[in-house]
Design brief:
mainly alpha, 2 helices, about 80% helix, elongated
Length: about 20
């Protein structure tokens, strides 16, 4: 999740957030 943010990948970050909510 954090890696996606640092790398600048909003798509992966969004997916991570969805998985985190679950």
């Amino acid at each position: 999740c954090l890696r996606a943010l640092q790398e600048g990948d909003p798509c992966q970050y969004r997916t991570c957030l969805l998985n985190s909510k679950q």
